[in-house]
Amino acid sequence: MSAIAPAVDVRERHTPATTQWMRNVWTxxxxxxxxxxxxxxxxxxxxxxxxxxxxxxxxxxxxITAEPSGAVTLAAALFHARELPKAQKVVAIVSGGNLDxxxxxxxxxxxx
Length: 112
Prior knowledge:
Blueprint: E1 4-8, H1 21-24, H2 30-39, E2 42-46, H3 48-61, H4 72-79, H5 101-109
Parallel strand pairs: 1-2
Helix pairs in contact: 3-4
């Protein structure tokens, strides 16, 4: 079984008002590093706009209230499918519920 871990584009880490703020303070401990080296086959980088688009899809197509970092896996699956291993079925784990009401409104308003 292969696993791809989504990651944030380093160029966006210094964006002041970013939806992925929780992932900006991410550090890798020795134990986590060992697990990553053992189980992760690659990393997919997603952008801020891809996260917002994935979050918009989750909010409009489901009853799930995901936080922005919880939409990262869907963003990777939607916008970077060619970078992922070929599969008949794709599972995106959506997590969280810590979504600021103002950000929710903004994401829903900015439909493209």
